[in-house]
Amino acid sequence: MRLFWAGLLLVCVNVKADQAGADYFEKNVRPVLVRQCLACHSSPTSPMGGLRLDTREGMLKGGTRGAAIVAGKPADSLLLRAVRQSEALKMPPSGKLKDAEIAALTEWVAMGAPWGAPPEISKNAEPAKKYWAFVSPAEPKTPEVRNAAWAKSPLDRFVLAALEAKGLKPAPAADKRALIRRATFDLTGLPPTPEETRAFLDDRRDDAFARVVDRLLASPRYGERWGRHWLDVARYADSNGLDENLVYRHAYRYRDYVIQAFNKDKPYDLFLKEQLAGDLLPGPASDAVQFERWTATGFLSLGAKMLAEDDPVKMEMDIVDEQLDTTARTFMGLTVGCARCHDHKFDPIPTADY
């Protein structure tokens, strides 16, 4: 059993490492290659010097001068010696790369030259037209089930149909003590108090459990519990992270906006619009609503930012890129960050759309 868990841990670590390497390549290496190298070294028929730098295989194979990189060995990699311009071969011809760009290439080769999405992602990628984010929602037909008396709602029929298809039966109904404990943990993240449990056990009304659910949904703890999941997706933090890690003094206002939105059962479409364009929506009925909408746009200003970037134009574009990538991941279940430099390999996002 210990060997099983050790093996599982090793697999998880490797997957995370692969993803980290892929992310590092997309953020730090591919942009350099696109700006400085691919104009001459990406032709499938006649790349300069026989060298293609638009694929990992092309780099490892190399051109007329040999392999461009040796994975894991920066000192043996011709590409790095060329961009350092300390020998006869000096690349790119337009001038030496920035020190930060050379450092990024060196670090990437030392990591083993990871390239784009790891194999397990590319191997299982669905065709774009079948990807769930592009499929229009449709109301499915409620399935027929054998044990129709068990289903209390149409949703139950879908669960039961899947169980029956595998020859399984639903678990026995939970007793009242287990029921209130599960519901309270689910909706508030906290256990019920002894008084709440006793009150529910003593309540003999047919709608006793519905009353418990209504009480939990009305609790401020509900928004704190479920708003937290949105804050994770929206990359909420109290500081910018990265180089200088300065504090966002008013980040808590966005956090509280999200919690209150859940507690007020704000319509989802309005919840999205306020975060993306709260300052552009038609005039509200009160100053309080206007302030709430302005606060919602904190979604765009949060996130990690490299404040020590010495190129103001690049810094602005990096911030915009982070906003675009987070917006697409959050609202569309889709990555678009790769399309900053090239047509997306897995999602149908060309650079023109980006």
Summed up:
By secondary structure, this protein is mainly alpha-helical.
Describe the structure.
The protein has helices spanning 2-36, 56-61, 78-84, 99-110, 119-124, 154-165, 176-188, 194-202, 208-217, 220-233, 251-263, 268-277, 287-296, 298-301, 312-332. With 354 residues, the chain is an all-alpha fold. Helix 1 packs antiparallel against helix 4. The protein is elongated. The two termini are 48 Å apart. 18% of the residues are buried.
**How would you describe the shape?**
elongated
Query: What is the chains' assembly state?
Result: single chain
Total count of domains: 4
Question: What is the tally of helical segments?
Answer: 15
Strand content: under 5%
First CA to last CA: what distance? Answer: 48 Å
Work out the number of β strands. Answer: 0
SS-based structural class? mainly alpha
H/E series: HHHHHHHHHHHHHHH
Topology at a glance:
Blueprint: H1 2-36, H2 56-61, H3 78-84, H4 99-110, H5 119-124, H6 154-165, H7 176-188, H8 194-202, H9 208-217, H10 220-233, H11 251-263, H12 268-277, H13 287-296, H14 298-301, H15 312-332
Helix pairs in contact: 1-4, 7-9, 10-11, 12-13
Structural descriptors:
15 helices
